[in-house]
């Protein structure tokens, strides 16, 4: 049955689905939830949240500590049930999770006084996600004071139901943790669509995550995704590695029945023959590995046949038989573009590619569209650290693999996820600032996603037009140069009274493409600059803004209709804000988390890459400078879309950018229709994050579209916020606003170096 409101419940007329063991024998059946079960769970969670959030930090921490002792007492039962349902995990790992998050539950109000829980959190995992990744979502959500509705996958359903019962034994109030079972994609969407649910987080395969995001888009629920199970990760062996240890690592990692990630073996050419010979020796006589399903056998056979047609040679422990068993296999001599490298088949099949130099090895490591983790093997510490820094992944293990601990941030990059799990950094997805507006709950709008933004009106400058009738023609700022829109179209900029103030370009998809091409050329160099050098560039930008304060104040007054005194105050706050970000450049850093294992962990923030920003109407200059400062201070490039209603302050700010020593192309400012440019930013695969202030329909479109390619989203429904007078307070001096901006501008990388 389901676990709702602190007890198990089941209804006779529900459909069931079988849970099978590793031999395909039916262990038991779980019940599939209906709409009324979802409503009951959401109502229970809303009541549980009220009770749980009113408890003190000490009381919540006490429950999680009690859970650790309960897990210890029932460790054999937990272990056997996880093994039976093919979701094996060591009880010691679960105990460590409970103890770690109990301490954060105790410290929440002390270290995060401005942050409050999201409310009711829906945690959805796919069928083959492990219980560890499920609890890496559930426990921090509970520790931060949220109530949780769990929608487990088939393999985690039984352990999740058992853990819910153990939570009750630990003393958690009824309703704080609820478990409903069924088809994770459709059931997860029903849970998230309930108006009492405030946040959705998902862990598992990309296909299920995409379906879930599209079903929930427009319901006003923020979403985060950890797509580790679909991630392809490099296992890189340099010629300076201890080859015996590296080959042992390959055998341990690649030929298990169930893997958390897909792996590709990359070996330096100078030691390729030695590694292949040792692999053959170690694989000789290894038993066939059971496949998850018989359908996987067809996928493996097709992938191996295609690889052989492309010139690959096989290393196999024994000849393949028939059925749902397959021998450990290495596909040697593949090209990086081969389908088996880009998307390895399931089961015990490992693609192998070679590289010549260390730099080429790192390039191959970044070849995949994913960015979850990497394992690098070398005895050269300098090479290890340089390679770890250059790899675009969230976790790097040096001379080891799969080191998991809740203190280490696990942060997906690119197609591997848009959130951080683990560490202090992983707690913030379950929190929001007390004064920060949330998305409004409502039903989705009827949107044609394919045509979104394409109906924007265009105004072509007619032949014989008298330029003297318009005070000024502005250009947009793309790639460090002033340019007209690629389409040749323009828009009228109107004063509050309706008079035409100027003409500005009506940018589109090609302008965004040009801006991103310029950004990716300059952003890596900007990111590698020392924080001190970036700081000096920002101070230079603030100084240029100060020199043009009068012109900018007049443009704000003319465009928005506020008094000159208020406009001058906004300019002064903008100068102060830029100076703050200049000062923070070399102050924000990572650290060395404390882990129970013997080793040296590192955790550090890194730039996202290229960020798209659709600016709000409120405070058109101050909001631009605040968001621009946060993004480029952390090493990002930005493509900014000024307020469609008030673009003049941003266009005047272009002259400040031109006079500064900010590299050309790092910042682009494109004017035009908000929906049209939002669509162009969302569909560009290079842009890693979008910060959006705009309409409800725009928020819905981004949630629907930005799961493929996956992007980090920071969404604000400005129209609803203006009605509720609950928008972002850009004039606030509260340091938590800058902290939130900083956290949105970085991703986290953890590096683990074992010691003797």
TrEMBL record:
<protein>
    <submittedName>
        <fullName>Aldehyde dehydrogenase 16 family, member A1</fullName>
    </submittedName>
</protein>
<feature type="domain" description="Aldehyde dehydrogenase">
    <location>
        <begin position="14"/>
        <end position="433"/>
    </location>
</feature>
<dbReference type="InterPro" id="IPR016162">
    <property type="entry name" value="Ald_DH_N"/>
</dbReference>
<dbReference type="InterPro" id="IPR016163">
    <property type="entry name" value="Ald_DH_C"/>
</dbReference>
<dbReference type="InterPro" id="IPR016161">
    <property type="entry name" value="Ald_DH/histidinol_DH"/>
</dbReference>
<dbReference type="Pfam" id="PF00171">
    <property type="entry name" value="Aldedh"/>
</dbReference>
<dbReference type="InterPro" id="IPR015590">
    <property type="entry name" value="Aldehyde_DH_dom"/>
</dbReference>
<dbReference type="GO" id="GO:0016620">
    <property type="term" value="F:oxidoreductase activity, acting on the aldehyde or oxo group of donors, NAD or NADP as acceptor"/>
</dbReference>
<feature type="domain" description="Aldehyde dehydrogenase">
    <location>
        <begin position="496"/>
        <end position="716"/>
    </location>
</feature>
